Structure formats: C-alpha cells, structure tokens
DNA sequence: CTGAAAGCGCTTACAG
DNA sequence: CTGAAAGCGCTTACAG
C-alpha cells in the first residue's frame, strides 16, 4: 500500500536493486531480458522514482530555484514566462518562491533552496545586500535579476533605469510638457530609486527644474490612484505625470478620470515596464518597455552557462536598455 | 571550499553530528553551551542545511507541488496568487510545473514531483483521465483543480461552467440580444466544453435556437481576434458574442473595433473568468466572475486538510458558481 | 552482465 | 545530555 521503492521493483523483478536501477535508467550494461522484466515490474507497481533521493545521490537536481518578490501580477508573471520558456527548452524544472516582503522570509526562502536546486535566480530589489550575501548558500550558482552587487552572485542582469527615466522625461519635454510630476516607487527599492534619480537629473538638465514634484508610491495601483487624486485637486500644478511603473500609472489615470480630468487632454500620463495591460487601458499607456520576459530568459541562460561551465570566467553584468513606447496617454500637447 | 555539511559543523564545534543536528533544530536535550558552540560554528561556515537530505530522512518536504497548464498569464497568475497566499500562511513552499501542452510533459512534470512534495495540486483541463491516473504517484495526496474525476485524486474543485454559461446567455437575452454567437474554447478542454454545452442548452431553451453560431477557438487572444474578423465581415448575422473566456473576448473586441464595428452599440461582447484586465479594456467587459484566486486558495486548503488528516473521510467535490458581472460591453440594446 | 556495498546529507531511536 | 549506528531511496564504482 505504501509508495513502492526501487527495492520493491527489484524484488518484483527478482533482480538486485542495482540492476533495477540500471534497467530503469536505460544503462547499456543490462540484458534485454532483465530490462524488460524490470520495466514490467515497475509498471505493475506504478513505480515512480523518488526524485529527492535520486538527486541526493547524483548531486544534482535538474531544477532551478527562482526567488521573486511575488509570483503573480503582470510583471512577475512575465518574468516567469521568460524563465519558464528557457527552462523548458533545457529540460529543467522550476522551484519558485516568494519573498513576501520581509527580509526574514526572503532568507528562509533562499535557504530552503539549498539541496533542492542546482542554481538560483534571485530578484530582490529591496533587501539589504549584506543580509542577502549572508544567506545565499555558498557554492550555489546564483544570478541576480536586479543589478550587480559586488560579491553577490555569479552573474547579474540589470535594467538601465537611470537612462530610461531620463529618456521618458525627454519624451515628455519634446511633447511640450513642462510641469512634470513623478510618482515614485518604494523607498529602498533600487529600481525605483534609479528611476527617481534619472527623473530628477533630466528635470534639472532639460528644464532647469531642480525641485520637481514627487509623489510617494509603492508600485501598487492604489498608490497611483492616491497620487492621481492629489493631482486632480490642483490640476494646474501639473501637465504630465511620469509614474515609476505602469501599475501606478494605470491607478493614476483612473483617479484622474474619476475626478473629471481628461487624459491626455489636460494631463499626460506615462509609466514604466510595458506590462501587457498597458496597451489595453484607455487611453493606451506610453511607457518604457522592459521586455520583461526576455529579462527572465536571459537570466536563465546566464545561469545555465554557469552551470554548464562552473569554472569559466565570471560573467560580466548584462544591462538591458528599455525602449520608449509612445501611445495615446501622452499624445496631446498641453494647453 | 565545497558547501559545508553538518559533519563540517560538527567537527568545527567538536561535537558529534547527532548533537549538531539537535542543536541546530532547537531540540531541548542539548546543553546551552553545546548549542551555542554549534550555532556559532554553523554561522562561521555559513552552513545551510541540505533540504533534500533533510526531507528524505524526515519523510516530508514542507512543499506542495502545483501542476498547471501554464505558469503565467492573467488566469494562472491569479490561481498562483491564491495558492501562494494559503501556502504562505501555512509555511509551505511551492514547486510549480508547467505541462507545456503535451500529455508526455504533463506526465513527466507530475512524476518529477514524487519525493519532492507532500501533496499535489493539479489542473489539467485537457489531459486524458486514464493517462493522468497512470502517472499520479500512488500515495501522494492530490487535489484536482478542474472537476472531479472518478478514481483520481483525493479531493477536487470545479467550476459550474454549464450553469454559468446559461446565466450569461440569460443576461444577453434579457438585454434584448437575439442573434448570439459563441466563441468556443479548445476541443477536449472540459471547461470549454461545458461552457459550450451550457450555451447551446440556453439558446435552445430561451430562444428556440437549436443551432446557434459557434466559432472555433483555443482560449487565445488571436483566436478571439479571428472570430471577431469573421463576425465583422457579416455584422448583421450577430448582435452579441459570448466568448468562452475573457482573453478571446478581448481579442474579438479589438478586431471588431479595427473593422469599425462599435461595441456594444452594434455588437455586444461578453467573456468568462473576470481576469484583471476585464475591467480595464474599453468598453469594460461583461463576464462571469470565477474568483480565480479563491479557487487556488480553496484547493490548497482542501489539500492541507488531507495532509493534516490523511485517513479522514474523502472530501466531497467542491463546486464554485461564477457570478455575473455586468459592465459596459453589453450595455446597449441592439437596434 | 550482475550483485553487494558504500555513500549522498540528514535525523532519530537506542545505549550509555 | 551525548555519540555511534541505522536508515531515508537512490546510484555507481568495485569485484566477480
């Protein structure tokens, strides 16, 4: 009644455990007759090998661990799509974990990966580096999905948030907008902070505005909505909004609409990421396209190369440059 | 240089492996002094326990396997959200796998779970039951996410697709629509087939139309777009479209718009699922809300109960009834 | 080609 | 309280 093990199969086929193992794994040093007997016995017992034991012996697991801030939502869903595509192609399984926002949980998620995966993909935009370094199992190849951090990981990818934010401000200025406000991402989040820095820099450079309006935010739709309400309360102060991600941009647009402020006729709105929803909202959203899935794929490929060639040279950090996608939400010139 | 094991910790602390294990796991039968020495040694070596070995010994893994048709996209992303929420609350990890559309890959994904997880959540809307049954590791508690199948799994959830499809047709008829077409889901997909069956039944019952127009589809946006183009070619033939899921409804709407057919003024469109995007599109989409995340949560809870009480009575299948959500896409009465 | 044995990294009765 | 030993389910040199 209990789940059958390879011993049960061996007994059923009247061979040794060693032969059963060899037959099941398709080794050549086994007679056809033995192989047949073993395979039939396994089928009879509905034997499924215990992957845990198998990987303990073989010292590799055939699975890759992925630690992300979240496992769902438009952005992370796209990352997973990209990782999954690459993993599937190489025949590897995925063990996904969520950090649930706390450093302790991030650490425990990462620690739980030890012995279950051959390598790790980690995106941890707001966890302290030293803390992270202390909890990464030594010897486990790791690729960081959010920028290079000295001494952490064996490879890294990053988005050029700083340049991209400047490009977005450049676009808005080209369109004639002058009173541009920013909705910031979470404090302590490196992506968000770079976007803010790029925004400030471009505002100073292009418009001589060293102290532009910045609303606090946390990448959530509600935060965008809240900022939108503040902006609607004094619509003269602002003629364009650049949100640090698309989700907040969408929230902001919906608050502006509710308050009767036309987008883009009275206020333009733009975002960052190009999540799938960006082209469905009305007006469709101008944004910086990150090619999110590709970020996942590339990170995976980097890891796969490290796994295939563990003693190769260190990978240089890869930087992806987002691309401006102009849609309707920034199409009207301001009054 | 190699990853340290508990033997290294024991040696470093000058105690036996047994004591090291006890100290690390917080057992009480260890002196404070020993515990302190062990913990310090572990920290010095950056020791992280090998979860694979640990679960082999302890005969449980603290993780739940999840096998879904896909790991990304609006629908599955919501399921994962729901599962993750529940898993987190109970302190369990998630091992996710994708079936990549083929029965062979589904089987191998499921088999790979053996020995890595304590239980399984499987949503397999278009894989043959016998095949599935043959590949489910015996003894591994399994909850099916798409309907009860005799002899498979130890619990199941399902959506009342049949009744829900009828409810949607009822809504369209109430609004005055008469020439209602359906965009079907993939052949062999049980959810899709039930929705089609419900559609046909309601069309016959409510309108005496025993042979309504049905376009083929596969749940993809492209399929919806294709159907939309066909409909736009002869817009008199149809005054409302009921798509078997939201993604196809969205595709259909965009094709209709492109062809200059106003939605809902000339043709109404409705979907199924209530994915997050449904309320963002313009016009916003009337649909049957599935509470997708809740489906995941409930499935997880069912499994958790089975795990906590393995010899309890069999769980009765749970059926969720979707709820009609009326939005703008069906708001105009037909001409 | 086949089998007995060691070992992967842990935990836990069993003695002491 | 502590340690030596067995065992979780596999695979793979090592002999034969």
Can you walk through the features of this model?
2 copies of one chain form a homodimer. Chain A has helices at residues 6-13, 17-24, 32-45, 51-58, 73-89, 103-113, 129-135, 161-174, 190-207, 221-233, 246-258, 292-308, and strands at 63-68, 93-98, 119-122, 142-144, 155-159, 180-183, 214-215, 240-243, 268-270, 287-289, 318-320, 323-325. Chain A has 335 residues and is of the alpha/beta class. In chain A, helix 2 crosses helix 3 (32-45), helix 8 runs parallel beside helix 9 (190-207) and helix 10 packs across helix 11. The first copy, chain A, is elongated, with a radius of gyration of 26 Å. The interface between A and B is large, with 53 and 52 residues. Strand 2 of chain A pairs antiparallel with strand 2 of chain B, so a sheet runs across the interface. The first copy, chain A, binds a DNA duplex (16 and 16 nucleotides) through residues 5-7, 15-19, 21-22, 25, 29-31, 34, 49-59, 115.
């Amino acid at each position: 009644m209990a789940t059958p093990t390879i011993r049960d199969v061996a007994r059923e086929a009247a061979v040794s455990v060693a032969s059963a193992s060899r037959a099941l794994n398709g080794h050549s040093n086994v007679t056809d007759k033995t192989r047949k007997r073993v395979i039939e016995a396994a089928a009879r017992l509905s034997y499924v090998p215990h992957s845990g034991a198998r990987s303990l012996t073989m010292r590799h697991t055939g699975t890759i661990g992925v630690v992300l801030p979240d496992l769902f939502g438009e952005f992370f869903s796209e990352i997973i799509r990209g990782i999954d595509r690459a993993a599937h192609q190489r025949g590897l399984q995925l063990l996904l974990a969520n950090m649930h926002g706390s450093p302790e949980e991030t650490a425990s998620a990462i620690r739980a990966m030890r012995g279950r995966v051959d390598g790790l993909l980690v995106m941890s935009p707001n966890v302290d580096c030293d803390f992270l370094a202390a909890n990464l199992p030594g010897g486990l190849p790791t690729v960081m999905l959010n920028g290079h951090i000295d001494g952490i990981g064996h490879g890294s990818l990053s988005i050029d948030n700083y340049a991209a934010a400047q490009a977005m401000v450049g676009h808005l200025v080209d369109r004639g907008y002058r009173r541009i406000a920013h909705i910031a991402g979470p404090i302590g989040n490196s992506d968000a902070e770079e976007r803010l820095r790029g925004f400030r820099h471009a505002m100073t450079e292009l418009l001589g505005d060293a102290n532009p309006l910045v609303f606090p935010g946390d990448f959530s739709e509600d935060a965008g909505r809240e900022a939108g309400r503040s902006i609607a309360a004094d619509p003269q102060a602002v003629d364009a909004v650049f949100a640090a991600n698309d989700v907040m941009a969408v929230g902001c647009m919906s608050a502006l609409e509710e308050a009767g402020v036309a987008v883009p006729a009275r206020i333009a709105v733009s975002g960052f990421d190009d999540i799938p929803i960006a082209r469905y909202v009305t007006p469709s959203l101008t944004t910086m396209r990150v090619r999110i899935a590709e970020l996942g794929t590339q990170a995976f490929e980097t890891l796969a190369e490290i796994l295939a060639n563990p003693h190769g040279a260190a990978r240089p950090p890869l930087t992806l440059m987002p691309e401006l996608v102009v849609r309707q939400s920034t199409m009207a010139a301001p009054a």
